[in-house]
Amino acid sequence: MILLVAGFWRGLHFVVLDHMLCITPAPAIKNIHDSKAMHAQSNILVKRICEILIGTEDHDKVWKILGSGITTAVKYGAYELIEECILTYPGIIWYSVEGLYMFHAAIKERQERVYNLIYQMSDHKVFVATQLDKENENALHMAAKLAPPHRLNVVTGAALQMQRELQWFKEVEKFIEPSYKEALNTEKQTPRMVFTDKHKDLLKEGQEWMKDTASSCTVVAALTVTMAFAAAFTVPGGNQDNGKPLFLDDGVFMLFIVSDAIALFSSTTSVLMFLGILTSRYAEGDFLYALPKRMTIGLVSLFLSLVAAMIAFSATITLVVRDKVTWIAAPVVIATSIPACLFALLQFPLLVELVYSTYGPSVFRKQNDRWMH
Question: Cystine design at 266: which of 105, 260, 305, 325 (Cβ 3.0–4.6 Å)?
Answer without folding.
Answer: 305
